[in-house]
Amino acid sequence: MDITLLLIAFILMIVGILGSFLPVLPGPPISWVGLLLLYLTKAVPMSYTVLGVTLVVALIVGILDYVIPAKGTKRFGGSKYGIWGTNIGLVVGILAPIPFGFIIGPFVGAFVGEMINDSNDSQKAFKAATGSFIGFLASTFIKFVVSMVFFGLFLLKVWEYRSEFF
Predict the structure, then answer these.
(1) Euclidean distance between CA atoms 72 and 144, whole angstroms
(2) What is the reported pTM?
(3) pLDDT of 128-148, one tens digit each?
(4) 132 contact partners, CB below 8 Å, separation of at least 6
């Protein structure tokens, strides 16, 4: 049973890291569930402190994931159309067979969203798209770092208790 939990936890860790880049997957919370499964094995002793602190971090980052791009867009004069455009552009950019689509998509999406909101001011749309894009990059970076820290903690615990697993 421990090996099964360990494998599922590892898969959740990888999905959590991927979720740092994909807006449809909450990366750090998925990684946290992987940590929880690791601690539910008989091999790793339960640590409510570690699980509690990492849960709080995952929840804060999950909330900031929505706040940071919105603040970036607002700071640069954008609207909700820019935020929606960023998210839609990211999905299209990931699915489209173009190089660096996951980077180009959010920017283009935010620009198009702002142009839909106000088609007369392309300079404002460009500025808002830039803000939304910067917010998206900052949020993605934070999620990625947190997911990688969780993965590092996961690997550390697996290594520490490897004799119990294998």
Answers:
(1) 18
(2) 0.81
(3) 888 877 888 888 899 999 999
(4) 69, 72, 73, 76, 78, 82, 83, 85, 86, 106, 107, 110
